[in-house]
Protein: Prolyl 4-hydroxylase alpha subunit domain-containing protein
Organism: Zingiber officinale
Amino acid sequence: MSLDGAVDRRDGPLAGNGSGNGLAKGKAAPAKPTYADRRLRLNPNTEHKPERYDDVQSDFDPAIFSSLERHLPPSMLEVPRDVKVQFMKEILSRYLPEGERIRVQRHKEYRYKLMSAYQPLHKELYNLHPSAFFMPSFVKAINDNTDESFRNILSEPSPGIYTFSMLQPSFCEMLLDEVDNFEKWVNTIKFKIMRPNTMNKYGAVLDDFGLEAMLNKLMEEYISPMARVFFPEIGGSTLDSHHGFVVEYGKDKDVELGFHVDDSEVTLNVCLGKDFSGGQLFFRGVRCDKHVNTETQTEVCYYMVAIFARICLWKCMYSGAFHHSMLAWNLKHA
C-alpha cells in the first residue's frame, strides 16, 4: 500500500562556492531527512515495538495508530512521534469513512462521561499486579518465556483449544464485585450503557469504566507471548488491540448464546461466577468467512462442561475463528 500523492520534501539546490561553475567544493552539509519513501509495508514489522498513543487527541482509536506503526516504512520509524501521528492521520483520513470517524468520536465521549463519574470499588484492579492477579505457575511460565514453559502449564483437550490455570480466585472475586458495582451504579443513575455485542443483552465492556490500561498490559505482556507460540499462523505475535468484556447468564437474563465466531485473532475465555451450576461451552471447529454457518463434522466438536463452579472454573484460549456457542439452558444459581 502506498500513500497517494506523497510529497518528496527536499531542500533547494546546493549553493555554489563563488567560482562560477555552480558546484560546491568540499563536503556538502548533511541532508535533512526527506521521508520520500512513504510506501507502507504489506506485512507488519513484528520486531518493532510501537509507541503508545493513548494521550493523542484524535478521532481514531489509539490502538489503530499502534497497529499501523508496524506497517510504516523504515524511514518513518525513528522520527518524532508527532510526525508519525500526522503521517498516519493523513493515511487514515483517506480510508476511514466519515461515518466510522463519527462513531469512534461518539464512543470516546460516551466513555469519558462514564469514567469521569464512576467511582471504582476496587482501585487495585486498575493496575496490573502479577502476584496478586495470577497463579504462581502462570507467572513463572511468563518469566521463563520459552515454548516449553508455556506447554508445561497448558492442556490441549481438543486441537487448537488450550486450557490453563491463570487467575487467582481473589482477583476473580474482585472483578465480579467491580462489575456488579458498576451495573448497580448505572442502574441508579438510569444511564443506558453499551453492551459488549449485539447478541448479549446483559454485560459490560470493561474498557468503558477504566480497565483499558490494565487489559492492554495483560494482552501485551502475558497473552501475546503465549499467542506467539500457539497461534503464529493467525497473527499471534502481533496482537495490538483487545475487546475486554463480561457477559451474564442466569435467571431473568440470557440463558444461552448461539453459534458464532469471534471478531478476534485470539480469544481468552474465562468462566466466572459465584456458586452456580450448569453451563457448557460448545466448539464446532474453525471456520473461514465463507463457511461460518455450514454443517459440522462430529470429529471437530468439543464440549467444555461446567457442572458446578465457585468464582472461577475454566480459562481457555483459542482462535477467534472457532465456531462456538454457550449452552446454559439449565444454568441455576446455587
Summary: Residues 1-33, 302-314, 329-334 have pLDDT under 50 and may be disordered. The CA atoms of residues 206 and 244 lie 6 Å apart. Residues 111-333 form a domain with the Jelly Rolls fold (CATH 2.60.120).
